[in-house]
């Protein structure tokens, strides 16, 4: 019985890696939103840093999701 | 109605009613009876089914553990309301993706099993792809077949009980059809339909809808009115 350990290892590494990366980026995006809303509470104005942070992170998350859907759906190949 | 059609009906009903793992176990049992034990490539079963089946929950569990821990650590000291709102939105997105991945996977398996049956009875040629009606009914049947399993331990116990049971059912059904001719096929079809219908009826007694889908996993089937407790005078 021959097991393709390399393939198994690759799938494991990519699964864990991408999951952690995507969730971390999303969490950073949420932190950006929190920064904006905290600034709004304190000063009345928003926080450009927070807005940029949130915007960039969520765009990155959307890109990961779009790529994942592209990989899954056979019509795209 | 000829016995091929009934056999197909049986396979479709059971395929729609049971989870893919059970379908697979049923296949193994049926092949074992139909072609002898050399018909089942057990080393391939271990290599391509059992090992991935054990490995994938472990990989998913580790990934989820690390990701959740990181999410908590990163957002620990931030403004609570924003964080809650943000992750609630994220959960909607990730739940949708889980549905997509699960659906694109399960329906394919169901279609594959049904097509396999059709090819093996000669109703389809060797190289045929799944017919359109198979594709359409696989999508329909999935809604009927959604079953919520519980905690991991309960899943494992369920697998350990139902996998041999499904293999047995597959084997017995195949033997009945082989030895019983048309009547055998009819009997198997009727029993399969009755079982599937019974399961659907039972599950309707306590339906899962949007309100209770996230509740605890233990559900009482029979609802008894609460006992009247007398108040102290």
- Helix count from the secondary structure assignment of chain A: 2
Largest interface: A-B, 31 and 32 residues
Could you list the spans of chain B in which at least 5 consecutive residues all have pLDDT below 50? 144-150
Q: Largest sheet of chain A, if any?
A: none
Organism (chain A): Streptomyces endocoffeicus
Protein name (chain A): Secreted protein
Transmembrane segments (chain A): 12-34, 54-73
Keywords (chain A): Membrane, Transmembrane, Transmembrane helix
Question: Would you kindly provide a written description of the structure presented here, covering whatever features stand out?
Answer:
The complex is a heterodimer of chains A (77) and B (233). Chain A is an all-alpha fold. Chain A is built from 2 helices and no strands. Chain A has helices spanning 5-43, 48-72. The mean pLDDT of chain A is 90. Chain B is 74% helix and 0% strand. Chain B is elongated and about 70 Å long. The relative contact order of chain B is 0.16. The interface between A and B is medium-sized, with 31 and 32 residues.
What is the compact description of this entry?
Chain A: The chain crosses the membrane at residues 12-34, 54-73. With 77 residues, chain A is an all-alpha fold.
Entry keywords:
heterodimer; A: mainly alpha; B: mainly alpha; 6 helices; Inorganic phosphate transporter (chain B)
Topology:
The complex is a heterodimer of chains A (77) and B (233).
Chain A: H1 5-43, H2 48-72
Helix pairs in contact in A: 1-2
Chain B: H1 3-17, H2 20-35, H3 42-75, H4 80-120, H5 132-145, H6 152-204
Helix pairs in contact in B: 1-4, 1-6, 2-4, 2-6, 4-5
